[in-house]
Amino acid sequence: MQSNNLASAVACLRNQAAMAKACLLPVLLMAALAATVESLSTLNPGCQSSCGGVDVPYPFGIGTDRGGAECFRPGFRIDCVNNTPFLTGTTQVIPVLQLSVMPRPEARVMLPVAWICYNTSTWSEVTGEYHGVVDFNSAGVYRISNSSNELFVLGCNTIIFINSGRPSRGYDHSYHAGCINYCKDLQSVQDGACSGIGCCHVDIPPGLTDNWMRFYSFSHQGMEFSPCEYAFIVEKGNYSFLAADLHMDAKQRKMPLRLDWAIRDGNINSTDSLTCSQAANRQEYTCVSKNSECVDATNGPGYFCTCKKGYEGNPYLRDGCINIIECDRLAEFPCNGKCEDTEGSYICTCHPGHTSNGDPKIDPCHPTFTLAAKLALGITLGVSFLIVFLLLAFIMIQKRKLDELFEKNGGKILQNVKGLTIFTKDGLKKITKDNSDFLGNGSFGKVYKGTLSDNTLVAVKASIKVDEATKAEFTEEVEIQTYMIHKNILKLIGCCLEVDVPVLVYEFAANGSLQDTLHGNRTQKITLDSRLDIAIGSAEGLRYMHSYTTQTIRHGDVKPDNILLDDKLTPKISDFGLSKLLKGEYFAKTVVGCMGYIDPVFMKTGLLTQKSDVYSFGAVLLELITRKKNVYDENCSLIMEYQKVYEKERSGRSMFDKDIANEEDMVILEEIGKLALDCLKENIEDRPDMTEVAERLVMIRRDKKFGKKNNRKAHHIGNITMDDSPSSTEVRAIFSVASMANHNFSGNY
After folding, report:
1. In terms of domains, do 449 and 467 share one?
2. What stretches pass through the bilayer (predicted)?
């Protein structure tokens, strides 16, 4: 068409000037056509893309864009009325159900049923009829799909033909198709059966552009069960015959059918529309996407466009065909191995070590094993199984060992003690970070700093070795320590029993031991008030121990190393032994302890009493007021030196720590020294008990606080004199003597 217009234009230009207006018209038409093709090769902004939920893809279109250009290719206009799409250029109102570009160019529409009805009282009197005459598209775009539709005829004693196409060779139409029905009565008609009794159907030929139903019938007289005949083209699979349809209300009934469409030259009778090979070199060629291809139409002349294999989209738009990501859609594009997307396709290969008997897109992949590979795999699996077996056996042996240690160390009893946490061996490693923070040496082994899951700081230390003979004693002692809760006694938090020697977990004392505070760092100033608080707190802790139950408890190793201080210098009695609670007098076969603090009576007789703790506490009091070690200057005993000075001078003034030996506090220091000497008396009956010691210290602090210092005789404090030593109740329970202190550690837990 474009070349014909161009030839006309050249011829016209050679004519006279009087024909200028006629010459100009073909040129303008050619330019307009080229501009239209170019503008519609892209989806113009402002074009309506759907109507009533039906997508309207190009070359179809509705109306114009914002610039006034048509949104459709000529012949593909769609009207949207009251939110319903309709075909244009038809002789009937045809609503559209669906428009598709890919994979097939189709339009799905609705057509009314053709019908004719008779007066059953006469031979062949017609009471009404509609022949369903429709011409789908004057531009020749559409053809009734012969592959997707079929013709149905309903009625009895009837012949119906479909006529379609323009007259040809003396005939009224180019195509004829139809079928014959016969039925004697309604009982002979069956639902679902459409083979000539009340219903028949036939395929239709290709190329149909219009539709006109022709009815030829025999007599309907006396056929009240089938007074009408019906004919319609319907989409295959969309209709199933029912006997009740012999009385259908055809005026209200429409059937869906499919129309094929293609790019044609616009002449409905022309058979020489452009093929793909002819159209490819034309300016108006519509397959504009670079990944599209042309397909010759099979239902009538012309061609249509489709996206190449591996692409999808709209081939009538520039860049309309886009690459399919096949690896994301394995249900549609199977791959039994490794999928790799490529432009327009995808590669499917088996994973390393696997192969397929054919194409892995179809055939499954299976492992590729040579004999050597199989042997290697067998050996590897065998060794692996052996390693796993040995590992499991080792784990079971270790678990059995841990269970045995747990039971040996009294775990079955201690796990039921309220307030006592039982730590596992692995849990203990996490707490101490595998013993990475070493604090020092305790009575029975090394001590490590740890942190619980709630960030509580703890001290972790070894206990005594437990066997069957001592298990009952150990469990009883741990239970007693757990229940012994006092602010001046170091709290036992838990223990670990999955080790040879049980490990105990105590609260952490941030300032170490009194030994370190007094003698470790001599530059640290310690006020008299602080020393009094430490003495009173320590005495309160020992008094609590001595009166915890009706069976009194002896510490057995009271010394500065075993008095720990927290961040507020609050004293905590620690390392008070792990012997079980005894019900009678306890005579030690071997006296163990720090010699400067051991009660001489205990050393001579082996009898450990509460007054033995009082003696040791007296030695601690002397260290508090003198800040001298129990044994100083290599071989000087603090106790003996203080007693000599006091007997000679009737005062300990010369030995008091100069940091606190103020004249105004001298009486207070003398009273503390006198209390210490009372605790150190050789006769245990002359020694005060810890209750009296604590009370006297409290009164000393009270007198210091209220300024009662030098206005009172040195041997009186409150209403109690130093000579008035109350008798002690005979002790009946005892802890074993604690071990010798190790001075390399900053406090014994």
Report:
1. yes
2. 375-397
Whole-number Cα distances in Å, 386 to 290, 379, 381, 399: 62, 10, 8, 20
E strands present in 379-470: 421-423, 438-441, 446-451, 457-462
- Given the residues 245, 557, 613, 678, select the one marked as catalytic: 557
User: What confidence tier does 159 reach under pLDDT thresholds 50, 70, 90?
Assistant: confident
When pLDDT is averaged across residues 669-695 and rounded to a whole number, the result is: 95
Q: Is 583 annotated as belonging to a binding site?
A: no
Question: What is the pLDDT, as a whole number, of residue 379?
Answer: 92
Question: pLDDT, tens digit, for every residue of 333-348?
Answer: 999 999 999 999 999 9
Q: How confident is the model at residue 178, as a pLDDT?
A: 78
Partners of residue 293 on adjacent β-strands? 306
Q: Tokens 């989209």 belong to which residue? A: 313
What residues pair up with 116 in beta bridges, in sequence order?
Answer: 129, 229
Task: Please check whether residues 575 and 647 belong to one and the same domain.
Answer: yes
How far is Cα 131 from Cα 232, in angstroms, rounded to an integer? 10
The arithmetic mean of pLDDT across residues 60-68, rounded, is 90
Q: Are residues 202 and 284 in the same domain?
A: no
Average pLDDT rounded to a whole number, residues 222-247: 89
**Are residues 257 and 280 located together in one domain of the fold?**
no
Asked if residue 174 and residue 272 are part of one domain, the reply reads no
Give the CB-side neighbour count of residue 240, counting CA atoms within 13 A.
4
Q: Which amino acid is at 33?
A: L
Active site residue 557: yes
What's the number of domains the chain is made of?
Answer: 5
Range of the domain at 6: 1-39
Separation between Cα atoms, residue 349 and residue 363, nearest integer Å: 11
What would the DSSP string read from start to end of 460-512?
A: EEE-----TTTHHHHHHHHHHHHH---TTBPPEEEEE-SSSS-EEEEE--TT-
CB 56 within 8 A of CB 85: yes
* 697 phi and psi angles, rounded to 5 deg: -65, -40
Residues 594 and 481 in one domain: no
- Tell me the pLDDT tens digit for each residue of 591-649: 455 677 888 998 888 888 889 999 999 999 999 999 999 887 777 889 999 999 999 99
Q: What is the pLDDT of residue 547?
A: 85
pLDDT band at 550 (very low <50, low <70, confident <90, very high): low
Kindly report the pTM of this predicted structure. Answer: 0.47
Mean pLDDT across the chain, nearest whole number? 81
Q: For residues 265 and 572, what is the distance between their CA atoms, to the nearest angstrom? A: 108
The distance from CA 218 to its chain's CA centroid, rounded to whole angstroms, is: 77
**Residue 541's CATH number:** 1.10.510.10
The alpha carbon of residue 545 and the mean position of all alpha carbons in its chain are separated, in whole angstroms, by 53
Instruction: Express each pLDDT in 5-34 by its tens digit.
Output: 333 333 333 333 333 333 333 333 333 433
Long-range Cβ contact pairs of 389-396 (< 8 A, separation 24 or more): none
The pLDDT value given to residue 551: 63
pLDDT exceeds 80 at position 291: yes
Residues 520 and 579 in one domain: yes
Residue 444: C-alpha distances to residues 460, 463, 738 (Å) = 12, 6, 10
Examine the pLDDT at 71 and tell me if it is beyond 90.
Answer: yes
Q: Residue 595 gets which letter from DSSP?
A: T
Name the E strands within 101-205: 106-112, 114-118, 126-130, 134-135, 142-144, 149-154, 158-164, 175-181, 199-202
Q: How far apart are CA 259 and CA 143, in angstroms?
A: 6
DSSP string, 56-107: --TTSB-SB-TTS-BSS-TT-BEEEETTEEEESS-SS--BEEEEE-SSS-EE
